[in-house]
Amino acid sequence: MRDAAKLADFVKANPSKIGKVVDFDPAQDKLCQFDLTAGNIELDAATISDTLKFSHWVNQKLSSNGCRYGIGGYLENRTIYAYSPLFNNVSNERTLHLGVDIWAAEGTPVYAPLNGKVHSFQDNNNFGDYGPTIILEHNLDGLQVYTLYGHLSRKSLEGLTTGGEVVCGQQIAAFGDIDENGNWPPHLHFQLIFDMQGKRGDYPGVCSPAERERYLANIPDPRIILQW
Questions:
Q1: pTM of the model
Q2: Hey, what CATH topology would domain 2-226 get?
Q3: Do 226 and 109 contact (CB within 8 A), yes or no?
């Protein structure tokens, strides 16, 4: 957890170097908190497994609360993943969410919150997966941090080059629609990673509860950067 403390210290000491991820304005926008655990009785398997129904539920939730953006998910135990074969492995059932989900309309702009460069990108085109994904690399006074952006539009990957420079506040992507983002209601999976462990264009966004401590050491709370 030492790296997480270093990251928090960097953010506190360098507020001008930390930018937005989406156009959320805490002075004017309300933020809707989402709960995708089994404890949310508003959601059932029939809704979760039908992307159109799930999208309708998300949109209703945002609208009824007067919000452009919803948020939730870090270390949330999402047994809802059981519907997808990508996560439903009897020997290693992955339900613990490692990033933050930002829920908003398709086409919502995504920005780099830090100076850095493009580490890798790819279309993880499987049902329930990230879909188009971008990973940026940042050096924060010697602390190496990676930011992962999942469920993007395919257009977001056009023109990218590995090693390409990005600057804080630059638009790097947009939310994808359900036909391109892994079959999810439009949202952004935003995740921080200290060590990519050799992976490129992808990194687990969900782990099994048994793996919690191992991943927790490498995946800090994204709200350190979001500051929401």
A1: 0.94
A2: Glucose Permease (Domain IIA) (2.70.70)
A3: no
